Structures are given as structure tokens and as C-alpha cells.
């Protein structure tokens, strides 16, 4: 494993006790594509960092941007529970905080490793062993103090489906739910972790973890998850469906997809496709030209044809849909010269009737 550190001689870091930590080390050990690097500086102070040109950006604890690379460097820190939820912690980032102290506060052993300038791996909690044995395991009892760690556990279960979850880690996750910590989760953080999970090849494992620890109704109220949803999500991932289609399939067995989207503040396109997927599934099979046109118009397919086709592609994961036929129908209807038709009619209602008749006529030819 090659060192992940910056080129020796960097004046900003020269002489500092600096380590790459967390996901970059994990992914390098697993042969995964390199992502962003996070850094920890041991034995420094905000004043020392400022003197070297680092730009302070941290709120609750000292985090700095490298003056050239703009990568994040955080001072080694400890944390103590002081309130509810993700923000309910008091941090200490004194120069006496060791690297192991910093790693001890992390969520999973696979994320509690560091790499020094010489390439040596610092692994006080046996993360390499857990990676070798394919186990997701908590670092310490503090796991059940932060509800975001439950979301991250579920997300890593989706990202690494070949990994099992240590039973004692699931027990701590259940305690986190039972103590009410999950009720302090903010919608934006729920969506962020759900979004990352939906983009994996096994998003159903995120849902499994949430159900297994009793968190589903607290974190995603109104969401109905069953074997059909799991199968649809795995199929969507295999086909490479974009995020809005995957979210729509996540909600396709639920009564009110719009409410679920609003609760976690999902993007508008995700909400819209979830709502439209219900319309499409309720309308299938559409056997007659008037049925085809009704569905196209209800889904605003004339103005937003690609979105309509995307929703049909999502529907094809759970129902029989002839996508090529629908594309021909949509192209035929959109090919009507609305201006020419309008000139043959008088008045708004007459124009609308003439347009509909022209569209039905072209659909009948198919």
C-alpha cells in the first residue's frame, strides 16, 4: 500500500504530525477507488495552523483548509455527550489529544484507521481484521450516542453487501433507537445518507438495517417496505437507473410518496417522479389510444418527455412496460404541429378539442 500523504517538503505540513484518516485509508486497503482525503493533525493548535496559512472553516471544532490543495485538516479531538442528537456533543481539541484518542470517537473499526507519512497503518481497533473478515463493527460504546452512526451503519451495509454486521453493533443500534436518539435526526442528514445508499448496488440493505433495529417508522414515517420494494431497488441498481427513479421505486408501495419526500426534504425531481410513478402504475395496462394520451397528459409528457420516459423506465422494474412502444407514442404525439391545428379551430375549447383529436388520430395509426 503506497503512502497517501502529500509530497514531502510541503511547507504547510512540514514538521507537523499529520495523518490521513478514515475512508481514504479504508478504501485504499480494500482496493476501492480513491475519494476525498481527510487529515488529522496531532499536537498542533489553531494558532500554529493559521501561521502556516491554513484557512479555518470549522464550527464546533477546529477544521482547516490546506492553503494550496484545499483538503480538510482537523486537529485531533475528543468528544463528550452533552445533549440530544448529532450536535449534542462537546469537543476538546487540545495539543495533548493523541491520534488514538481521535480514532476512538469514530463509528466503525474500518473507519478508525490512519496512515502516517511513512505509509504505516495505525489501527488500534483492528479495522484491518474486520475488513479481512468482512464485518461491520462499532469502535466503542459511544456508537449509540450519535444517531447519524445508525444511518452510516445502514449505508455501509448497502455499500458493502458482502459484509455482515456484528451482533453487538446491532444491539447498540437498537439501544440508540430505544433511547430516542433517532428522533433528533435532521431531515437533511437522513436524505444525505439515504441518497448515498440508493446509489449503491444493494440499497435494500439500508432498509434491512433500519427495519432490523426498529428505526424505520421513526426515521422514514409512512414508507412501506416489503420484498417487492427490495426487489425493485436491486433491479433499478442493476439497470443503472438515475436517483429519482430509484427514489420513486423506494416509495412505490407507500400511500403518500409526496409526504415521504417532504419529510426528508428530498429534491423536487425525486418527489415528482415518485408521485408520477404511482400515476403510471395505476394506469397500466393502458390498452387504447385514449388511455395512452390520457397518461401522457397526466404526466405532463408533452412538456417534459424525458421525465415521462424515466418514470416509465422505473415502472418497468415492477410492471410490464413496452418502453419502445411508449417512446413511439410520445414522439408521434409531440410531432403534431399544434400551431397548424390551432389555425383550423376557433376559440380555446375548440383548439383543445382539435389538438386532442389530432393526437388521437396519430396514435390510432400506431
Shape: elongated
How much helix, percentage-wise, in residues? Answer: 40-55%
Mean pLDDT: 92
Please tell me how large the radius of gyration is. Answer: 26 Å
Low-pLDDT runs: none
Number of helices: 18
**Sheet bearing the most strands, described?**
7 strands, mixed
Strand content: 5-15%
Order of strands in the sheet with the most strands? 3-4-5-2-1-8-9
Q: For this structure, what is the CATH class of one domain?
A: Alpha Beta
CATH topology of one domain: Beta Polymerase, domain 2
CA-to-CA gap between the ends? 61 Å
Structural class: alpha+beta
Protein name: tRNA nucleotidyltransferase (CCA-adding enzyme)
GO molecular function, one term: metal ion binding
Family: Belongs to the tRNA nucleotidyltransferase/poly(A) polymerase family.
Pfam family, one: PolyA_pol
Describe the protein.
Keywords: ATP-binding, Magnesium, Metal-binding, Nucleotide-binding, Nucleotidyltransferase, RNA repair, RNA-binding, Transferase, tRNA processing. Belongs to the tRNA nucleotidyltransferase/poly(A) polymerase family. GO terms for molecular function: ATP binding; CCA tRNA nucleotidyltransferase activity; metal ion binding; RNA binding. Residues 163-223 form the tRNA nucleotidyltransferase/poly(A) polymerase RNA and SrmB- binding domain. This is tRNA nucleotidyltransferase (CCA-adding enzyme). The protein has 366 residues and is of the alpha+beta class. A seven-stranded mixed sheet has the order 3-4-5-2-1-8-9. Strands 6-7 form a two-stranded antiparallel ribbon. The protein has a two-stranded parallel ribbon with strand order 10-11. Helices cover 48% and strands 10% of the residues. The protein has a domain at 1-125: Beta Polymerase, domain 2 (2-Layer Sandwich), CATH 3.30.460. The mean pLDDT is 92. The chain has helices at residues 23-30, 46-51, 99-104, 127-132, 147-159, 167-178, 187-198, 204-212, 216-219, 227-239, 243-250, 257-264, 268-283, 289-298, 305-315, 323-334, 338-343, 348-364, and strands spanning 17-21, 38-42, 55-56, 63-65, 72-75, 78-81, 89-92, 114-115, 121-122, 135-136, 164-165. 37% of the residues are buried. The termini are far apart.
